[in-house]
Amino acid sequence: MGAITLNAVEKWFGSVQVIKGVDLEIADGEFVIFVGPSGCGKSTLLRLISGLEDISRGSLTIDGKDVTAEPPSGRGLAMVFQSYALYPHMTVRENMGFGLKTAGAPKKEIAEKVNEAARVLKLEPLLDRRPKDLSGGQRQRVAIGRSIVRQPTAFLFDEPLSNLDAALRVEMRFEIAKLHQRLDATMIYVTHDQVEAMTLADKIVVLQAGRIEQVGTPRELYEKPANLFVAQFIGSPK
Ligand code: ADP
Ligand code: MG
Q1: pLDDT reading at 83 higher than 90
Q2: Where are the membrane-spanning stretches (predicted)?
Q3: Is the pLDDT assigned to residue 101 strictly greater than 80?
Q4: Angle formed by the axes of helices 107-120 and 166-183, nearest 10°
Q5: With contact defined as beta carbons under 8 Å apart, do 117 and 149 qualify?
Q6: What ipTM, to 2 d.p.?
Q7: Centroid of ligand 2 to alpha carbon of 52 (angstroms)
Q8: pLDDT digits (tens, 9 = 90+) for 115-150
Q9: Residue 32 has pLDDT above 90, yes or no
Q10: Relative to the alpha carbon of 40, which ligand is closest?
Q11: Is the pLDDT of residue 77 over 80?
Q12: Res. 82: pLDDT tops 80
Protein backbone atom coordinates (compact mmCIF):
# COMPACT_ATOMS: atom_id res chain seq x y z
CA MET A 1 0.00 0.00 0.00
CA GLY A 2 1.39 3.39 -0.87
CA ALA A 3 0.45 4.42 -4.39
CA ILE A 4 0.17 8.20 -4.65
CA THR A 5 -1.35 10.19 -7.52
CA LEU A 6 -1.30 13.94 -8.06
CA ASN A 7 -3.83 15.30 -10.54
CA ALA A 8 -3.26 18.81 -11.94
CA VAL A 9 -2.09 20.02 -8.53
CA GLU A 10 -1.68 23.78 -8.08
CA LYS A 11 -0.54 25.80 -5.09
CA TRP A 12 -1.05 29.52 -4.69
CA PHE A 13 0.33 31.61 -1.84
CA GLY A 14 -1.93 34.65 -2.13
CA SER A 15 -1.61 35.77 -5.75
CA VAL A 16 1.67 33.90 -6.30
CA GLN A 17 1.48 30.48 -7.92
CA VAL A 18 4.32 28.22 -6.80
CA ILE A 19 3.07 24.83 -8.06
CA LYS A 20 1.73 25.03 -11.60
CA GLY A 21 -0.28 21.98 -12.53
CA VAL A 22 1.62 18.88 -11.44
CA ASP A 23 0.52 15.43 -12.64
CA LEU A 24 2.44 12.56 -11.13
CA GLU A 25 1.94 8.87 -10.47
CA ILE A 26 3.97 7.16 -7.78
CA ALA A 27 3.70 3.38 -7.56
CA ASP A 28 3.52 1.43 -4.33
CA GLY A 29 7.04 0.80 -3.06
CA GLU A 30 8.69 3.21 -5.46
CA PHE A 31 11.63 5.41 -4.41
CA VAL A 32 10.93 8.79 -6.01
CA ILE A 33 13.27 11.75 -5.78
CA PHE A 34 12.34 15.40 -6.35
CA VAL A 35 15.25 17.51 -7.57
CA GLY A 36 15.50 21.06 -8.83
CA PRO A 37 17.02 24.41 -7.94
CA SER A 38 16.33 26.18 -4.68
CA GLY A 39 12.85 27.72 -4.63
CA CYS A 40 11.43 25.52 -7.43
CA GLY A 41 8.75 24.06 -5.14
CA LYS A 42 10.18 20.73 -3.90
CA SER A 43 9.32 21.28 -0.22
CA THR A 44 5.93 22.75 -1.07
CA LEU A 45 5.05 19.72 -3.18
CA LEU A 46 6.03 17.42 -0.32
CA ARG A 47 3.97 19.49 2.12
CA LEU A 48 0.96 19.30 -0.22
CA ILE A 49 1.29 15.51 -0.30
CA SER A 50 1.64 15.31 3.48
CA GLY A 51 -1.26 17.70 4.05
CA LEU A 52 0.84 20.29 5.90
CA GLU A 53 -0.27 22.71 3.15
CA ASP A 54 -3.66 22.75 1.42
CA ILE A 55 -3.87 22.07 -2.31
CA SER A 56 -5.32 25.16 -4.06
CA ARG A 57 -6.55 23.28 -7.16
CA GLY A 58 -6.37 19.69 -8.32
CA SER A 59 -6.49 16.50 -6.29
CA LEU A 60 -4.43 13.89 -4.50
CA THR A 61 -5.18 10.22 -4.06
CA ILE A 62 -3.47 7.62 -1.87
CA ASP A 63 -4.20 3.99 -2.75
CA GLY A 64 -7.12 5.15 -4.88
CA LYS A 65 -8.76 7.21 -2.14
CA ASP A 66 -9.15 10.96 -2.63
CA VAL A 67 -7.36 12.55 0.34
CA THR A 68 -7.27 16.15 -0.98
CA ALA A 69 -9.27 17.42 1.99
CA GLU A 70 -7.93 14.90 4.50
CA PRO A 71 -5.85 16.28 7.42
CA PRO A 72 -2.22 15.04 7.70
CA SER A 73 -3.12 12.50 10.38
CA GLY A 74 -5.60 10.78 8.06
CA ARG A 75 -3.11 10.19 5.26
CA GLY A 76 -0.93 7.54 6.87
CA LEU A 77 2.30 9.21 5.77
CA ALA A 78 5.47 9.95 7.72
CA MET A 79 7.43 13.13 7.19
CA VAL A 80 11.17 13.12 8.02
CA PHE A 81 12.88 16.52 8.12
CA GLN A 82 16.51 17.56 8.08
CA SER A 83 16.22 19.05 11.56
CA TYR A 84 15.62 15.90 13.56
CA ALA A 85 14.06 17.52 16.61
CA LEU A 86 14.31 14.77 19.22
CA TYR A 87 13.13 15.36 22.78
CA PRO A 88 16.37 15.90 24.77
CA HIS A 89 15.00 14.68 28.10
CA MET A 90 13.70 11.38 26.68
CA THR A 91 15.68 8.25 25.87
CA VAL A 92 15.81 6.88 22.33
CA ARG A 93 13.16 4.33 23.31
CA GLU A 94 10.87 7.06 24.67
CA ASN A 95 11.47 9.31 21.66
CA MET A 96 10.56 6.48 19.30
CA GLY A 97 7.45 5.49 21.22
CA PHE A 98 6.17 8.98 21.95
CA GLY A 99 3.90 9.30 18.90
CA LEU A 100 2.18 6.01 19.65
CA LYS A 101 1.89 6.92 23.33
CA THR A 102 0.13 10.21 22.57
CA ALA A 103 -2.12 8.31 20.14
CA GLY A 104 -3.15 6.15 23.11
CA ALA A 105 -1.58 2.86 22.05
CA PRO A 106 -1.18 0.19 24.74
CA LYS A 107 2.26 -0.15 26.36
CA LYS A 108 2.85 -3.64 25.04
CA GLU A 109 2.14 -2.59 21.46
CA ILE A 110 4.43 0.44 21.80
CA ALA A 111 7.25 -1.73 23.13
CA GLU A 112 6.86 -4.25 20.31
CA LYS A 113 6.83 -1.63 17.57
CA VAL A 114 9.77 0.29 19.03
CA ASN A 115 11.79 -2.93 19.31
CA GLU A 116 10.95 -3.88 15.73
CA ALA A 117 11.96 -0.42 14.41
CA ALA A 118 15.13 -0.51 16.51
CA ARG A 119 16.01 -3.88 15.01
CA VAL A 120 15.49 -2.67 11.44
CA LEU A 121 17.59 0.44 12.06
CA LYS A 122 20.20 -1.29 14.24
CA LEU A 123 19.39 1.03 17.12
CA GLU A 124 18.99 -1.71 19.75
CA PRO A 125 22.22 -0.91 21.65
CA LEU A 126 21.23 2.77 21.84
CA LEU A 127 17.67 2.48 23.15
CA ASP A 128 18.45 3.73 26.66
CA ARG A 129 20.64 6.66 25.61
CA ARG A 130 19.56 10.26 25.35
CA PRO A 131 19.97 12.33 22.17
CA LYS A 132 23.00 14.24 23.52
CA ASP A 133 24.90 10.95 23.71
CA LEU A 134 24.32 10.12 20.03
CA SER A 135 26.21 11.04 16.86
CA GLY A 136 24.50 13.04 14.11
CA GLY A 137 23.91 9.91 12.05
CA GLN A 138 22.48 8.04 15.03
CA ARG A 139 20.10 10.90 15.77
CA GLN A 140 18.95 10.87 12.17
CA ARG A 141 18.29 7.14 12.46
CA VAL A 142 16.25 7.71 15.63
CA ALA A 143 14.22 10.35 13.76
CA ILE A 144 13.53 7.81 11.02
CA GLY A 145 12.78 5.18 13.66
CA ARG A 146 10.23 7.44 15.23
CA SER A 147 8.36 7.53 11.93
CA ILE A 148 8.67 3.78 11.28
CA VAL A 149 6.81 2.86 14.48
CA ARG A 150 3.73 4.58 13.09
CA GLN A 151 3.85 2.12 10.16
CA PRO A 152 3.24 4.74 7.50
CA THR A 153 2.01 4.02 3.99
CA ALA A 154 4.84 6.15 2.64
CA PHE A 155 7.81 8.13 3.88
CA LEU A 156 8.39 11.73 2.84
CA PHE A 157 11.93 13.01 3.32
CA ASP A 158 12.85 16.69 2.93
CA GLU A 159 16.63 16.91 2.47
CA PRO A 160 17.17 14.60 5.45
CA LEU A 161 20.95 14.49 5.10
CA SER A 162 21.79 18.09 4.34
CA ASN A 163 22.91 18.87 7.90
CA LEU A 164 25.37 15.98 8.00
CA ASP A 165 29.03 16.06 6.99
CA ALA A 166 30.08 14.48 3.68
CA ALA A 167 31.24 11.11 5.04
CA LEU A 168 28.14 10.63 7.15
CA ARG A 169 25.93 11.63 4.23
CA VAL A 170 27.34 8.77 2.17
CA GLU A 171 26.85 6.34 5.05
CA MET A 172 23.27 7.47 5.67
CA ARG A 173 22.53 7.26 1.95
CA PHE A 174 23.31 3.54 2.12
CA GLU A 175 21.23 3.24 5.30
CA ILE A 176 18.22 4.76 3.58
CA ALA A 177 18.66 2.54 0.51
CA LYS A 178 18.75 -0.53 2.78
CA LEU A 179 15.74 0.70 4.72
CA HIS A 180 13.78 1.05 1.49
CA GLN A 181 14.64 -2.55 0.56
CA ARG A 182 13.75 -3.91 4.00
CA LEU A 183 10.48 -2.06 4.45
CA ASP A 184 9.47 -2.15 0.79
CA ALA A 185 7.74 1.19 1.46
CA THR A 186 7.04 4.07 -0.90
CA MET A 187 9.55 6.86 -0.38
CA ILE A 188 9.47 10.41 -1.70
CA TYR A 189 12.73 12.15 -1.11
CA VAL A 190 13.75 15.75 -1.77
CA THR A 191 17.37 16.58 -2.38
CA HIS A 192 19.47 19.09 -4.26
CA ASP A 193 22.32 16.58 -4.36
CA GLN A 194 22.49 14.96 -7.81
CA VAL A 195 24.63 12.06 -6.61
CA GLU A 196 22.07 11.22 -3.94
CA ALA A 197 19.33 11.39 -6.57
CA MET A 198 21.15 9.24 -9.12
CA THR A 199 22.10 6.54 -6.59
CA LEU A 200 18.85 6.25 -4.60
CA ALA A 201 16.00 6.82 -7.03
CA ASP A 202 13.83 4.41 -8.96
CA LYS A 203 12.39 7.55 -10.53
CA ILE A 204 13.59 11.15 -10.54
CA VAL A 205 11.22 14.11 -10.90
CA VAL A 206 13.00 17.24 -12.13
CA LEU A 207 11.22 20.44 -11.11
CA GLN A 208 11.73 24.00 -12.24
CA ALA A 209 9.65 26.99 -11.18
CA GLY A 210 6.73 24.87 -9.98
CA ARG A 211 6.52 22.61 -13.02
CA ILE A 212 7.78 19.13 -13.82
CA GLU A 213 10.46 19.30 -16.51
CA GLN A 214 10.96 15.54 -16.76
CA VAL A 215 10.21 12.28 -14.97
CA GLY A 216 12.37 9.23 -15.57
CA THR A 217 14.79 6.67 -14.22
CA PRO A 218 18.27 8.00 -13.41
CA ARG A 219 19.49 6.32 -16.59
CA GLU A 220 16.76 7.84 -18.78
CA LEU A 221 17.50 11.31 -17.45
CA TYR A 222 21.20 10.87 -17.93
CA GLU A 223 20.98 9.39 -21.42
CA LYS A 224 17.93 11.22 -22.77
CA PRO A 225 17.43 14.52 -20.96
CA ALA A 226 14.24 16.17 -22.23
CA ASN A 227 15.88 19.57 -22.54
CA LEU A 228 18.97 21.62 -21.77
CA PHE A 229 17.76 22.44 -18.25
CA VAL A 230 17.57 18.76 -17.28
CA ALA A 231 20.88 18.00 -19.00
CA GLN A 232 22.63 20.80 -17.16
CA PHE A 233 21.00 20.02 -13.85
CA ILE A 234 21.72 16.29 -13.92
CA GLY A 235 25.18 16.83 -15.35
CA SER A 236 26.32 19.59 -13.00
CA PRO A 237 28.57 18.57 -10.11
CA LYS A 238 26.37 20.22 -7.47
P1 ADP B 1 12.36 24.39 -2.60
O2 ADP B 1 12.02 23.43 -1.50
O3 ADP B 1 12.40 23.75 -3.95
O4 ADP B 1 13.59 25.16 -2.34
P5 ADP B 1 9.91 25.73 -1.73
O6 ADP B 1 8.86 24.73 -1.98
O7 ADP B 1 10.38 25.90 -0.34
O8 ADP B 1 11.17 25.45 -2.71
O9 ADP B 1 9.40 27.15 -2.24
C10 ADP B 1 8.83 27.33 -3.51
C11 ADP B 1 8.39 28.77 -3.65
O12 ADP B 1 7.27 29.00 -2.80
C13 ADP B 1 9.46 29.78 -3.25
O14 ADP B 1 9.38 30.87 -4.13
C15 ADP B 1 9.05 30.17 -1.86
O16 ADP B 1 9.47 31.46 -1.54
C17 ADP B 1 7.54 30.07 -1.92
N18 ADP B 1 6.92 29.73 -0.64
C19 ADP B 1 7.10 28.60 0.07
N20 ADP B 1 6.35 28.61 1.20
C21 ADP B 1 5.68 29.77 1.20
C22 ADP B 1 4.73 30.37 2.09
N23 ADP B 1 4.31 29.75 3.20
N24 ADP B 1 4.25 31.60 1.77
C25 ADP B 1 4.63 32.22 0.63
N26 ADP B 1 5.51 31.71 -0.25
C27 ADP B 1 6.03 30.50 0.02
MG1 MG C 1 13.01 22.95 0.28
Answers
A1: no
A2: none
A3: yes
A4: 120
A5: yes
A6: 0.98
A7: 14
A8: 999 988 889 999 999 999 998 888 888 988 888 888
A9: yes
A10: 1
A11: yes
A12: no
Q: Select from 28, 29, 31, 80 the least CA-distant residue to 52.
A: 80
What residue's CA is closest to ligand 1, atom 10?
A: 41
Q: What atom in ligand 1 is closest to the CA of residue 41? A: 6
* Pocket (CB within 6 angstroms of ligand 1): 13, 18, 36, 38-44
Check whether 237 has a pLDDT greater than 60. no
Which atom of ligand 1 sits closest to the CA of residue 37? 3
Give the pLDDT confidence score for residue 33 in this predicted structure: 97
With vertex at residue 174, the alpha carbon angle to CA 169 and CA 179, rounded to the nearest 5 degrees, is: 120
Q: Cα of 39 to ligand 1 centre, how many Å?
A: 6
Residue type for position 140: Q
The pTM (predicted TM-score) of the whole model is 0.90
- Residue type for 223, please? E
Residues 6+ positions from 208 with CB-CB distance below 8 Å: 36, 37, 40, 229
- Cα separation, 19 vs 4, in Å, equals 17
Q: Are 129 and 91 a contacting pair, CB within 8 Å?
A: yes
CB 145 within 8 A of CB 121: yes
- Can you tell me the distance from the alpha carbon of 4 to that of 1, in angstroms, rounded to the nearest whole number? 9
Query: Which ligand is the nearest neighbour of the Cα of 82?
Result: 2
Closest ligand relative to 39 C-alpha: 1
Of ligand 1's listed atoms, the one at least distance from the Cα of 44 is 6
Q: Tell me what percent of the residues of the chain surpass a pLDDT of 70.
A: 97
Q: Are strands 57-62 and 4-13 parallel, antiparallel or unpaired?
A: antiparallel
